[in-house]
Fold this protein.
Amino acid sequence: MTVQQDTDTATAHRLYRTMARIRQFEIAASKLMATGRLPGTLHVSIGQEAVAAGVCDVLRRDDLITTTHRGHGHCLAKGGEPKAMMAELLGRATGYCGGRSGSMHIADPSAGILGANAIVGAGIPIALGGAFAAARQGRGAVAVAFFGEGAVAQGVFHESLNLAALWKLPIVFVCENNQYVELTPVSVHLAAQRVADHAAPYGIPGVRVDGNDVMAVRQAAAEAVERARGGGGPSLLECLTYRWHGHFEGDPQRYRDTAEVAEWKAADPLKRLAGTADFAAVEDAARQEMADAIAAAEADPVASPESISAHVYRRPVNGGAFG
Ligand SMILES: Cc1ncc(C[n+]2csc(CCOP(=O)(O)OP(=O)(O)O)c2C)c(N)n1
Ligand SMILES: [Mg+2]
């Protein structure tokens, strides 16, 4: 084997492992919800794993990300701990947010995860602020904003591209285009449906890749991240993909037909990479890791009602005392 082949094999192995961990985490979370053990709402990204894995593979730990209501994959790929994530989903005091937030607000600043966000588009300007701070600090870190194509119709997406281009900030805007905004197909949602084209007015690179091809995602992300890190400014990366499950767990999915879902399942990002090696043991290990995370989280105490207002800002009254 040549050195190059060794490197390619190691990269494929690493990427497969990341995707398998995301998939097993979400399969397990989906089962917990179906059996009534997981409270709240859950949005899974099964079928979209290549985007999180490919992009985060070229990031450093001190690089920053923001994500959405469908963010487990990005958090895991960036270094989030499955046990603390599961504990959060299960409302345990040991969860990332003390069990008070659930699936949609996972954050781990120590891993550069500035937060998932339930408000469509709201993570984008937070990543922009992260990029601004990183540039000011001169530490060579970059920020990545993950968002769905639903956010592209929001004003804040355009405002953020404008400022990032104007100030040449080290940020990569990663649109995970899974072709649906809740129940609405992109064809009746966006006037300019090729998301990558939205880069042109701001004079920044806009690239569309097959979001189910983890190697292609990784390559495109590597170029955008290198450009950002080197002072070349922002890029927009559109990854075309598809979610296998409904918008939320329990979604009756009357807005799409099963043939379309089947077609995209055939383009499974894990199976595509699996053609290059035998990854069965990797998948088994990921399944076991998530089972262990759930067992450990379920043994922890549930969040106490008394902790409900912890970290909630309260307006100082009476000359500075908190009322
Ligand atoms: C500002 C705002 N408007 C509407 C909603 C309700 N909402 C939650 S998820 C969602 C769809 C988002 O679609 P997309 O951005 O494509 O992400 P996906 O769910 O496909 O991953 C909507 C409209 C919201 N959370 N925030
Ligand atoms: Mg979408």
